[in-house]
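ok here's the first one, seq then struct tokens
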Amino acid sequence: MRRRKSLLALIGIVVLLVSLAVPMMQCAPAAEEGVTPPEEDVSPYGGRLVIGYTDPIDSLVVDEDYTWTGMGCGLGGGTNMLYDGLSRVPKGPNYFEYSPCLCQSWETEDGKTWVLHLAENVKWHDGVPFTAEDLKFTWDYVWPDPGFWEIFTDAESTEVIDEHTLKVVLKAPIATWYGPPTWTYTPVVPKHIFEPYKDNIVECPNEEAIATGPYKLKEFVANQYIWLEVNEDYWGGRPYLDEVIMKLYGGAETMFMALEHGEVDVVSGISTPSGLIDDLQQAPDIDVADLPGNDMATLCFNLHQDLPYQDINVRRAIAHAIDRDKLIDLVYGGLAEKIDSIVFNEDIMHNENLPQYDYDLNKANTLLDDGGYLDSDGDGIRNDPATGQNLAFELIINSANQPSVKCSTVITENLAEVGIDIDMRAVDSDTFSDYLYNPLADAFQIAYTELSPGPSPFADWAWIYFTSTEISGGWAHAVYDNPVFDELYAAMGAAESLDERKEVEDEMQVMLQEDLPYIYLVRPAFLNAHRTDKFEGWVPQVGGFFSWMSPWSALEVHEK
């Protein structure tokens, strides 16, 4: 009975309170329209981003993998998640702007002697302060490795002025008016860890990978993944993500499948094959961004070989016989553009008045007829007038690159129409690279290659493909060996203004289009597949959100 009375009393109190509240609510002022209660603060930080790769690094040893592989660039080549460089690649579109990183500013009068002012309050991941001594050590003992392009970083001397100032005297001057952007994708290492290995840097196992970048190494499993965690005390400001995992896949097919299953958030280094685009676009929470491509499909002639294509008109006939529109439509589903230079079409350094080699079988046939390359034995293949041999060449392709196989098939069919026989030879990636980087061994005649230059001035390195073997060694795949071009190459690097540089580059582009050590074919778009359910803030760049040269997505991507 007592419990029942208590319950009735409680109900009465509630009824009374409600009856009093109603008139009070009616007398209250009306809420202002459009005003909503304040939301709770939500931290912009957090999340684990997984990036898919197909090109592995098998150790954290500081060698050329940091500049020539996707995962290596992610660590310190250009994406710089682990290692900072002296500068960063700008977001564009003006890539000549200086984007500071460890080098905040600089002074030079002659392009040869540079005084670099370094960022202060920078610490290595183990807490040791970063100083000019670290940069001097890196310059003296790490960057001289050919893998780090000593052509731009080779120094006569380095001198520490104070803790945050280094004086560098280069062996050859470089341009003074836009800063030292070529120092962007060369990682700076800690002297206190690497000094015992200074005579052979690659002997340092570098298992902890102590650096100064926005992320720190959490775990590394060779040929499987690299697990990074945020550097909470990053001197440049904490990035949004808590963790980044760079995960290796054995091939593109398994990587894109992992993307569909939500195991990967974004694909790096591989443009989405045209056959997968529709399926991915229709999948929930997946988008395929159409970004400017960084790869250029070309044909490279090994001019060290004494073959009929030494005749420039044979090379020009081949150029006129290739149907680039067919390559674009059949191989790339229309998502590519024709090219005529190592310089991107949209680049301010691109020469708009270059010799063109439009698809024209009549021109191709006329050039060959006038050169005496006739089908003298009636087998449908032209003959070399000097030897009587069939006009036939071997074309090597990288079997791992599916677009190259398809493009080379089209090219073979094109050239058959003008009486040139092409024998396609697919080789594995290592063999292809061995042949290409040792052209003097004459292991190949023509190669279907993909050049990946980047925008100016970050494409400066790519001009070395066309320099003499004395300058570039195995990088001169075509063995062009033109001393006039070598002089222009030096003049380009030392140009004292944008106008002067453009004048030199215009001449270089004309020379290459007239001489055709390479035939430029097409530039595919980079179709960057990524998930949209967890993250936003992707920064589009040439070659993708996480290309070899873009640090910005790593700094700006965040959870939704």
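and now the second one, same deal
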Amino acid sequence: MKTLDEIAGGFADPPREYSPIPFWFLNGDLGREELTRQLRLMHAIGIGVVCLHARRGHTVEYLSDEWFAGIRHCADVCADLGLRVWLYDEDNWPSGYAGGETLRRYPDGQAKHLAMVSEAEAPGEVVARVGGRAFIQGLTPWHPAYSEGWYTDLLDRRATEVFIETTHERYAEALAEHLGGTVTAVFTDEPGFYNHFHHCAPGTIVWTTDLPKQFEARCGYSLLPLLPALFGDVPDAPEAARVRVDFYRVVSRLILERFYEPLKAWCTAHGLELVGHINNEEYLVDHVRYNADFFTAMDGLDIPGMDIIGPAGDWHRQPDSFVPKLASSAAHTRGKTQSISETYGAAGWSLSPEEMRQIADWLGVRGVTRLVLHAFYYSVLGERYHECPPSLFFQSPHWPYIPALVKYLTRWSWLLENTGTDARVGVYYPIDAVRGVTTPQVPPSLEGGLDEKVAGEAGAIGLAFREITDGLFRAQVDYDILDDVALERARIEDKALVLERRRYECLVLPPGEPSAVARAVIDATLQAGVEVLSGTWASIAAAARRRAVVHLDPPSDKVTVARRRAKDGDVFLLVNEGTDPYEGLVVLPVRGAVSEWDWASGLQGPVCGSVDQRSLMEGPGGLVVNLQLLGRAAACIIVEFCN
């Protein structure tokens, strides 16, 4: 954390290394003059970091000598300009197949799934026969984006090693002296399991050849006689739920150990960070199906992340989305200062700078510290124009306003990454409860997402979790999401759970049976006098509202709030997520010298309206500010503590 004076000194014109990071779609011929021109243009508008992204439309063969010569040129120019470089680790997405090279070198590394059929129709490789059912290992017919090839088995360590050999080692060879200096990170994009995804291999579960052996070694009992439990083909007894929980715990460890950790170890050895995000963060049941556990996957990254992809005007098609809080919580509970969001992709050319600002505010107040811009296009000629637009680069009709947007986003990152969070509420991550009821009978996520209302018990748990997290934030209660690892690492001190210098004075338990680890911590917190709230939002709302960061008069469920800590004061971020202006009083639970910092201009001065030292009759003591906040606007109120 910095002092308020230190933060104020850089607020108007923050260092460019805090800028948003554009995906630069290298989707053309990589002409050297044009590469140089575009990099200089980025530098001129305040970009400090750029991610080199192989993208559909490139005319230079991916991973060829000519490809790496172009990448080398980009790194050389960035070094001269003082720009930092992130390397995107794939041709399009998802990461792991090396544009098809992984499977060309290692054909056995194709992604696998397990299907259940009757014994009479048992083609392929039979893993087991149980109760008149045959369980068949199959190859997952998932094509990575714009590819005719197949995706890889992320539970196969050898497939990951080949991916590193064909991609990362080649980049290291081409950019040797730039690694750890100009080149600072590798971005891995949407790795995961693509069986039972959209219309791909419905009714199957993720698999790899040695999974039964790994399961028995880690769980102490044989999986094979219990395979029907994974498919929900037995009465829903506690024993069946236990098998499913144990199975997905093993899978979550395997993808960490066999995919994320080897990538991270390679990056660390070369002075780089591993950053990125997983596939389908929006639904808890998809956490189980496509990565087995959000937080375990994020533990494999140096900087946790997410994405937000969608058409213009529909950027929070679920306004109550908890995904930004997942990403920021993965940072907060592991002692990290950064979290990222890949943002604006597939929103269409009509996405306006004003909407871009609103999306950024929505993410920032939820703790996401840095935006990865999707995207700056090298070229928009031909079909490139229609490929996941918009381009935010010089081809954009909004280009005259993009430099101001870059400055705006840089101010957000400067402030967020130099302050600490002050969430006092922890919400338990009920992933084991979802694992216990996740079977292939839960419908897949199609193009429009998942309708949790028809997704059985798994969907019901997700809906309840979404309602609680949304309810908290709309009641001005900031929170972090705590998984089992966070709970295990926390200590109980003075009626609070203490973790990474954060104090959680209240623990919220959504519906769903907690894990044994969580139950032990819950019992200990109750005995120590920590407040524990459980049930649906309707049952905990009144008690939860007492934990509000600020108090509004009149109340509003449209104004969202976060409190940040500097060394010598507090920062209150307020975002009006409604379309109507808010006018009223905001009670800040502190005293001191008050000022307001403006995101758009960088100016710092008196707050909008008067400040007095009285208290609202029904609120806690503290400063009372007359707040006037236009629809879709954000405010930043600073309180410097008096000596």
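notes on #2: Residues 192 and 291 are 5 Å apart (CA to CA). Residues 238-269 form the longest helix (32 residues).
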